[in-house]
Specification:
globular, 9-stranded mixed sheet, alpha/beta, single chain, Rossmann fold
Length: about 300
């Protein structure tokens, strides 16, 4: 961790001149593949209160992406929706507990996770540095689009009220929450990003020796001559460069003793968020769980209920 005040950190991420054009081209390429959304009932995972499904759709490059979907059984009228996006190493959250609170919930497994790893699976560790020196084939290009298409999947379901769809997640899920809120601005109604990862990535790698960012330090020790090329590639993927587009109400939480996603990068990305309705929760003695053990999850659910219900 740095010895300076983390709230004063200035990100070294630089938005490339063709940043918007690159992502517009990426999304246009994705549209050449029909989403082909499918839901398969899961009777064993369903209850008298909640219907559960396995979900599938096509994403960037034509890869099939999977996830879990759950909704209240017998709900009357359009439902508020929640997209849950996953962390780096763990598998997607099974969404029945959120569905039991009245939400239609999609918990997505981007490429490399769960049943989405049949074609692309660089592993954990591995994803962060997979083709890190090639802008067009870097692993997170498809991974980011998977999260965006997951939002579109949920938003397009007939039982979901498209004016009341929120996004939440922590760590990598926090990064994907910020991404979806940026590139689906005007559609995301509320967002909660915990301990956001993939923000000021080169800075984070210099501030911590914990994985996943240590993957980058490992890579640069082996290939020091590729550092600057990788920095230029990462500027296209750094979440810091997306968030000025965010317009929805949003909350962010960080732990001030987080050695995985340094608080410096959390402060910097929060400052860059474009929304006029944003609030940062800081937890002084917390590490990467960023307040979860101190009741922050209750704050998240109250926030979502306020804006979606």
């Amino acid at each position: 961790m740095s010895t300076t005040s983390p709230e004063t950190h200035k990100s070294s991420a630089v938005k490339p001149g063709d940043f918007d054009a690159f992502w517009a081209e990426t999304l246009a390429d994705t549209e050449t593949f029909p989403m082909d959304p499918r839901l398969e009932p899961l009777p064993m995972r369903s209850t008298p209160e909640v219907e559960a499904f396995e979900a599938h759709y096509l994403s960037y490059g034509g890869l099939e992406i999977a996830g879990w979907y759950a909704r209240p059984r017998g709900a009357d009228g359009p439902l508020p929706g929640l997209l849950h996006v996953p962390g780096y190493a763990g598998e997607p959250f099974f969404p029945s507990p959120l569905a039991s609170q009245g939400y239609a919930v999609f918990s997505v497994a981007p490429r490399g996770k769960l049943r989405s790893n049949g074609v692309f699976n660089p592993g954990y560790p591995g994803l962060l540095t997979h083709n890190i020196d090639d802008r067009d084939t870097y692993a997170y290009r498809g991974f980011y689009v998977d999260a965006l298409r997951a939002f579109d999947f949920l938003d397009g379901l007939p039982e979901v009220d498209s004016t009341r769809v929120g996004v939440l997640g922590s760590s990598q899920g926090g990064a994907l929450t910020l991404l979806a809120s940026s590139l689906r601005a005007g559609k995301v109604a509320a967002a909660s990003a915990g301990a956001p990862y993939l923000c000021s990535m080169m800075d984070a790698a210099s501030l911590t020796r914990s994985y996943p960012y240590e993957e980058m330090n490992d890579y640069f020790r082996l290939y020091p001559e590729r550092r600057e090329k990788a920095r230029a590639v990462l500027d296209y993927y750094d979440i810091h460069n997306f968030v000025d587009r965010i317009t929805c109400p949003i909350i962010v939480n960080i732990g001030l003793k987080d050695d995985v996603c340094p608080p410096e990068t959390g402060y910097a990305v929060f400052d860059a968020i474009g929304s006029t309705e944003k609030r940062l929760y800081t937890y002084e003695d917390c590490s990467h769980e960023s307040g979860a053990a101190l009741g922050h999850n209750d704050i998240v659910m109250a926030f979502m209920a306020e804006h979606l219900k």
